[in-house]
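Repro:
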Amino acid sequence: MLHAAPTTGLTAAPAAALPRTILVVEDNRTVADSLGAVLRRQGFATAVFTSGREALTYAAQSASDPAAAPAAALIDVHLPDISGLVLTQKLRQRLGPDLPIIIISGDTSMATLNSLPHVGATLFFSKPVQSSQLIQRLRELVA
């Protein structure tokens, strides 16, 4: 519940910043929920999806509300409906060049790694990812 500050003529302290939303797209529900929980414990808000199309719908809806737009995205390569690489490219086109997009995947094939710059990925982490390293990089990228 929000309360209005009394009008005393003094300048009010700025309100606490809202948590930055991290878009998580991972087809394994357990992994998706775990990533979301780790991020929330670190003060981030999350939007967690298990398919690329759900994430694209969210991105389209949040584009009209800058406060709801994701501050970063964590994307798995192998999703049930579209490739995480295609999703990355579509998010990059829709949300712009500054959105940090981190690919998290067990697929470390040369084909996947070589395609990352072409689709607009910012970083790559192989699974299993160390959450402390992921959080550190996220904080650097969304600061």
